[in-house]
Amino acid sequence: MNFQNYYRLPLDLGSITAKKILPKCNQKESIAHHLHLILTTSFGELLSDVRYGSSLWDEDFDNVSYRNKQKENILKSITSTIAKYESRIEKVKVEMNVMQEEVPDRTTDPRMKRKLDFVITAVMVATNENIVYRDSFFVSPLAYN
């Protein structure tokens, strides 16, 4: 399914007010945009539905050792949100790895930061096609790759 029926995120609000045509994407790209949105939204952030998002941002990643129970709760939260809000996929499996990574800093020596790597595998309902979505970002403070 290569139809360009979905709007590409992030939306260019300037184009909307200028009445220009917004860029579109296919279903697979749209699902990837939506999964990124789910991962980066905390509960309560979307005022029209406070249940949208994940518990990821309620967690403290500054612990010296990352606890398995914490990771389990995050994965359950993300999986539940995907099941509720992304009906275009099924058989969803979410994996998350937490690691330390050296990050260059312009003003000081490189710093160690916590990095979250996500791999979400699923099957597209419309085509029965397997999809793999990968995303990663640094936490404390949040930064996207």
Automatic annotation (TrEMBL):
Pfam families: GPW_gp25. Keywords: Coiled coil. Residues 27-128 form the IraD/Gp25-like domain. The keyword Membrane does not apply. InterPro entries: IraD/Gp25-like. Gene3D superfamilies: 3.10.450.40. Residues 68-102 form a coiled coil. This is GPW/gp25 family protein. It comes from Niabella yanshanensis.
